[in-house]
Amino acid sequence: MPSYQAPLRDFRFVMDEVLDYPRHYAQLPQAEEITPDVVSAILEEGARFTREVLLPLNQTGDEQGCRLEGGEVLTPSGFKEAYAQYVEGGWPSLSGDTAYHGQGLPTSLGMMLSEMVCSTNLAWGMYPGLSQGAADALRHHGSDEQKAQYLTKLNDGTWTGSMCLTEPQCGTDLGLIKTRARPDEAGGCLITGTKIFISAGEHDLAENIVHLVLAKLPDAPEGTKGISLFVVPKYLPDAEGEIGERNAVSCGALEHKMGIHGNATCVMNFDGARGYLVGEPHKGLTCMFTMMNVARIGVGIQGLGLMEVSFQNALAYARDRLQMRALSGTREADKPADSIISHPDVRRMLLTQKAFTEGGRMLVLHAAQLADRIEYATDATGCEAAETELGLLTPIVKAFLTEVGFEATNEGVQVFGGHGYIREWGMEQYVRDARITRLYEGTTGIQALDLLGRKVLMSQGEALKSFTRQIHKFCQAHEGNDAMAEFVTPLAKLNAEWGDLTMAVGMKAMQDREEVGAASFDYLMYAGYVTLAFFWARAAQAAHQALSGNPDDAAFYRAKLDTARFYYQRLLPRTRAHAEMIRAGGETLMSMQAEDFEHGFAI
Q1: What is the gyration radius of the CA atoms in the chain, in angstroms?
Q2: DSSP symbols for 499-537
Q3: Contacts of 550 (CB under 8 A, 6+ apart)
């Protein structure tokens, strides 16, 4: 079975020395409750729970999967008991609204716990993760009655949530949904339709499941402007707010998947199920985006968590596995061969994992700070600025971290060699589990279009400028600092090029809108590499500062500098290829006729 230790030392480095979390928490309304001791206690207990309770169930869940019996979904052995411990520990309520039995702690703390959960048992973690998204959507858009009815139960974990968007005939294009909502005399609606790919749509962990469902009212306009959002519980609440009669919603089938076997991915049938409108009619997509944006960041954290655990196990194996002698001569004379960590190519794979993981953690925790500011902002200007930046970074968090997460977990298998391909080591499960992260909550291509088309070009580049201005100021602040020149000089050039590439695509798009789609994937990847370079430069600056004080753990900071140099010299050059492909335009993609793709099939 794979092993795992929560990277608490790296959490502290990022929080305290790179992103200044103590100052950040001191500015929040509940500052007196978010002391360093409280934060440490939460992280340490989260580390214990995930390592001792969730990790041992990960391979079990993968091997057993979920079962559909008599319309009910049974989760793998131990999942239900683990969820009960999770609820008993108060984890579901960590960041919940205090008005509804939440603890009111910052969103960022919940995101840190999420990384540990994703490292130890991604499939299990999706059950409570979706509940958080459902609670956020209802908190922001639900009526007072709906909040009172559902939020307390979601916050304390008694009930869980799901989001039901996709249908057989449509994926991302939700304007094509066929699910209908017919108003009834009781003040609600009867929901009829079929949804597919519904994670945690049915299970045995909690007594009730609160589905948030997209459907169209009879007078709905065509397309996405006609979508409404409804809350449709598995069991209708009775007069006391407890579970009452069974609603007409059921799981018709379980999807047979490549990975995340321990999570129930369901075909959900709504056969005149009673539901209640959330927010305004025909404004459901706006409401659902509250949940979807939380989910997209959560998926980026999944990529991060899988990278971390794959790296930890690849590193341990590389230290133990003996094979050949180092090219420069014997390293371990008392052994018949040297450990494979002696070999440059193994180090390349390990450092790729390490650089993406630790860089991704800085990006995620920065995004978490922005989420805290949005939640607790006391002025409209500060809230708007945080929302703009988080909106820009969300597709990078989701898509870039899952793209490199899949690469990193593949490298973990490669370090193990043939053993990595064998199930008992657990490494191949991380690859299979990571594969879905590039697909759900919007594929990488959809996220790329969102970044370039909506977030950048539709804002006339203003969202991008506010972020690249931060990078520019950082580089300016370290001009003349010889120790930082190896980082800020290339970063400043790439930051300027980012703007130039944006302008070039925008000019081409004025003549041909297909140019946006042609450039979008490479644009997103370019943006991801530069964004991580910014955080690695900040990490290098923090490491230099710490080393100037001769700390006891100087090796930790030297390793940070070594990893930053590896990132800049071995991974950041990938921007050159992406920049060239952006400049190449869309002609070679769009010139071939669709029917010409098949030439060569026939004899």
Answers
A1: 25
A2: HHHHHHHHHHHHH-THHHHHHHHHHHHHHHHHHHHHHHH
A3: none
Tokens of residue 475, six digits = 């580089």
Residue 286 confidence class, pLDDT cut points 50, 70, 90: confident
* CA contacts within 13 A on the Cβ side of 488: 19
Q: What are phi and psi of 327, to 5 degrees?
A: -60, -30
Residue 414 C-alpha from the chain's centroid? 24
Specify the 3-state DSSP secondary structure of 180: strand
Q: Which two tokens stand for residue 600?
A: 């060569």
**Cα distance between residue 304 and residue 402, in whole Å:** 7
Q: Which residue's structure tokens are 């925790």? A: 365
Cβ pair 48, 112 in contact under 8 A = no
pLDDT tens readout for residues 234-279:
999 999 999 999 999 999 999 999 999 999 999 999 999 999 999 9
189 φ, ψ (degrees, to nearest 5): -140, 155
Return all residues near 237 (Cβ < 8 A) that are at least 6 apart. 149, 243, 244
Amino acid (one-letter) located at 434: A
pLDDT greater than 80 at residue 380 = no
Look at residue 603 in the predicted model and tell me its pLDDT: 58
Q: What distance in Å separates the CA atoms of residue 307 and residue 324, rounded to the nearest whole number?
A: 27
Q: Is the Cβ–Cβ distance between 520 and 449 less than 8 Å? A: yes
Residue from 601, 518, 532, 596 nearest 570 by CA: 532
Rounded Cα–Cα distance for residues 435 and 125 (Å): 16
With 0-12 / 13-18 / 19 or more C-beta atoms within 10 angstroms meaning exposed / middle / buried, residue 106 is buried
Q: What is the DSSP letter of 221?
A: P
Return the beta strands (E) in 247-395 as ranges. 249-254, 265-278
pLDDT band (50, 70, 90) for residue 7: very high
> Encoding tokens for residue 204?
């045995």
> CB-based contacts of 191: which residues, under 8 Å, 6+ apart?
179, 180, 181, 213, 215, 230, 232, 249, 270, 272, 273, 274, 275
SS3 599: coil
Per the annotation, the verdict on 441 as an active-site residue is: yes
Residues 6+ apart with CB under 8 A from 505: 452, 457, 515, 516, 519, 523, 582
CA distance 212 to 278: 9
Cα–Cα separations (whole angstroms), residue 327 to 239, 260, 341, 364, 383: 75, 40, 12, 38, 56
* Active-site position among 115, 441, 479, 587: 441
Of 566, 560, 529, the closest CA to residue 544 belongs to 560
H helix intervals, 548-571: 554-566
The torsion angles phi and psi of 180, rounded to 5 degrees, stand at -120, 150
pTM over 0.85: yes
Q: 61, 74 in Cβ contact below 8 A?
A: no
Is beta strand 67-69 parallel, antiparallel or unpaired with respect to 208-215? unpaired
H helix or E strand, kind and range, residue 300: helix 284-320
**Angle CA 440–444–450, to nearest 5:** 105
The C-alpha atoms of residue 313 and residue 4 are separated, in whole angstroms, by: 8
Mean per-residue pLDDT, 158-167: 95
Per-residue DSSP letters for 216-255? B-TTPPSGGGG-EEEEEESEEE-TTSSEEEEPSEEEEEE-
